[in-house]
Amino acid sequence: MTKYVYDFHEGNKDMKDLLGGKGANLAEMTNMGLPVPPGFTITTEACLAYLAQGGAPPEMLGEAGEHLVRLQDAMGKVLGDPEDPLLVSVRSGAKFSMPGMMDTVLNLGLNDGSVNGLAKQTGGDVRFARDAYRRFVQMFGKIVMDVPGDAFEHALDEAKERKGPGAQDTDLDAEDLAAVIERFREIYREHTGEDFPQDPKEQLNLAIAAVFRSWNGKRARDYRRQNKISDDLGTAVNVQAMVFGNRGDDSGTGVAFTRDPATGENVPYGDYLPNAQGEDVVAGIRNTLPLAELQKLDPVSYGELIQVMHTLEMHYRDMCDIEITIEKGKLWILQTRIGKRTAFGEWVMAHDMLNESLIDEDTALLRVDANRLEELFKRTVQAAGATPIARGLNASPGAATGKVVFSADEAEAWAKGGERVILVRRETTPDDYHGMIAAQGILTSAGGTNSHAAVVARGEGIPAVCGADQIKLDLASRAFTANGTKVVEGDVVTIDGFTGNVYVGELPLEDSVLEKARAGDAAARETRIWKAFQRLMAHADARRRLRVRANADTPDQSTNARERGAEGIGLCRTEHMFLGQERVAAVQQMILAETPEEEQAAYDVLLPLQRDDFVGIFRAMSGLPVTVRLLDPPLHEFLPNQVDLAVQVALGRERGEDVSEQERLLRKVNEMHEANPMLGLRGVRLGIVKPGLYAMQVRAIVEAAATVKKEGLDPQVEIMIPLVATKGELEQMRAELEPVAREILEREGVELDHLEWGTMIEVPRAAVTAGEIAEVADFFSFGTNDLTQMGFGFSRDDIGKFVGMYEERKLVPANPFVTVDRPGIGRLMRLAVEEGKAGNPALHLGICGEHGGDPASVTFCHEVGLDYVSCSPFRVETARLAAGQAVIGSAESASK
Ligand code: ADP
Ligand code: MG
Ligand code: MG
Predict the structure, then answer these.
(1) In terms of Cα–Cα distance, which of 258, 882, 264 is closest to 529?
(2) Could you tell me which of 183, 182, 180, 192 has the C-alpha nearest to residue 143?
(3) How far apart are alpha carbons 425 and 293 in whole angstroms?
(4) What's this model's pTM, rounded to 2 decimal places?
(5) In whole angstroms, how far apart are CA 388 and each of 327, 397, 480, 488?
(6) What mean pLDDT comes out for the span 355-383?
(7) Distance (Å, rounded) from C-alpha 347 to C-alpha 107?
């Protein structure tokens, strides 16, 4: 027979599935001998049975009845006894703490008789007893029976008004409270059509059923969907003997953390509210005192609390968050769980606990969240004294200050002119990308944490505040207003991506301690956070098998990546090397060339420019591999816009000007027009159609490598062909390009230790035929952006319109452009790894899509056996950490 009810003595902390988080930890603390008011937990299985059958299973009611008797015996009191009543709280508690679940009902068991018994128990404190009763009617009505809370609040306000102007709750005496209770019971009757239940068992059963039903409430369901929590878990119910923090100045209630959750420091931290019940702290009706004050108010209880905190930390080996109540000088512990902490706090705590030998190095490493590491490198704003003009969602961490602009083009133009700008939009679209990456920060008045603006900002490491709906844009007058403040184009604002606050004017920004320390600042290097970072990252590096490279296109980016621990460049894109006035002209000449001589002349211009770019990169990365990708985007991206050009030609003709040159260009542009350029003439297809292009690039790369080698440095070159779909394509490219490289090396009399030829795996066909392709490749690099795009048939640039809804409805497990989609795209990768290695055992494997900096994807790359991940330079530390954690995580799961 299923056991539906567990006494607190019968459970433990590992039974969260059955007892919920709250119940499991109450049981654990009970068995540790901590002062927990006795009680029992009705299981999540009972909840599921209740919901399935539309009523409580009879066995459950029987068991709950037996446990109630035991509780009564233990307390020497009977629930609702008019002489000496037992009172209980009814508390919901699912496996994960979850807003939307039913609120706790306190003081259950009170009725017209037991209210007198409560007064007797408390030495004749009739006022206290009646206050407890009116709170109970109110809570029970509102929480269990859905009576609108305002009705009770309103009646209470009236009672206070009758008492006199400015009267408080505490001014109501026993007589007044008797009247309030009467009024509350009328309200209850008006809204429910029934009398307030006097039978304590009926009260209890109604409350338990209400907790169960709240599992399927709208708020709870929405929360579960948002947070990807299963609907099949159910919630447990805890029934626990009441203790009272509102019995005078020697009583009170509070919340305590065993360490400071903000700074991580090993000092007790918390709030305490004398003479109050638990819900008063949350309601914020009076200001709480810092926990340290309790030491003065009640040194004995404080001392005992410190002892309990120590016991809990030694037991859970982590920072705990505790709810306490003191009743007449006696300390009670009402809840504990592993405490939430800031990104900063978790590093400091993990490192301290390691030094205290509370945890080992592997455990310490798993305690820090790779997804939040980036936050530690961001600038913060010093906002003391400043009032925000608006607040939105903290969509991407970091602080930024700059002049307001309202379009992506302005952002780009102003930034080129050396201005720091904040791009302000209602929301952004892929067309805004160039302006977004030119801005210091992004501010939108619409859109959520998964909006285009938010996703791009996080991906690029740009601070952003999104959905600040108090901001009313007036694009016509290039201005916005927010709560009465008007801001026009060019005005300076400051945004705080940690809090979502928006300020007018330039607030001082502070560099992160870690960035300062990295730059050599002596004081910063003495901080706890830097020491924690150094030690734990060293452990991650020692543990990881995956190498970490960066995607970098310039010498500066390469140097930056190397400083962050990059062990090579996994993707050096050459397209930006085709931009800039002089280069665009040459590129256009190449595209438009009518004869081989014209085309060659263009390559002669481009060659030395490209070579210099590569020299800088090889120098910066000496001794480490650099994967250079030959030109990938469609050529028309380097030509003028078709429509603009047609307009120019038409206007010129009308004016009778000589437009033959533009006409020639237009003809070529029309000729090259593609309906689907991303699936058109690009990548290796360009290499096949314009053989001189890749040959020129290879010449530039190998000549640069030869130059750097002659300087005594060690260039390690990997040449990568994009968008390959067939073995034949790669074979042909190698046949054409390898002789070019060989000839240069012979001419220069130089040998390279490391010169490899490989391909991206980014077209599904390439993944599926990887075994064949591997026969002619030295390495594969998974281009997971395109692989995801083509695998799903989702255009990454357009997915913003529906990806949020897809995630919400669980149509995709996660945004597949952020985290590798294991069952689909991941399966293609796994296949390509296995068959690729079978086809060529010496094959190197890496990933260069943006997924390379996403912790969950890094774990996947570890599991499928890649050799390295490559990601943006500012994600290198994240990837190093995630790669270390992946080893420990898989060791853990292997030992289970
Ligand atoms: P939540 O999950 O919202 O924290 P809780 O069940 O922990 O809800 O309870 C809300 C408040 O009521 C807390 O402050 C808690 O300490 C207090 N409380 C719960 N049960 C009791 C009890 N048996 N005696 C006294 N206070 C209680
Ligand atoms: Mg609680
Ligand atoms: Mg690609």
Answers:
(1) 264
(2) 192
(3) 47
(4) 0.87
(5) 41, 17, 15, 17
(6) 95
(7) 41
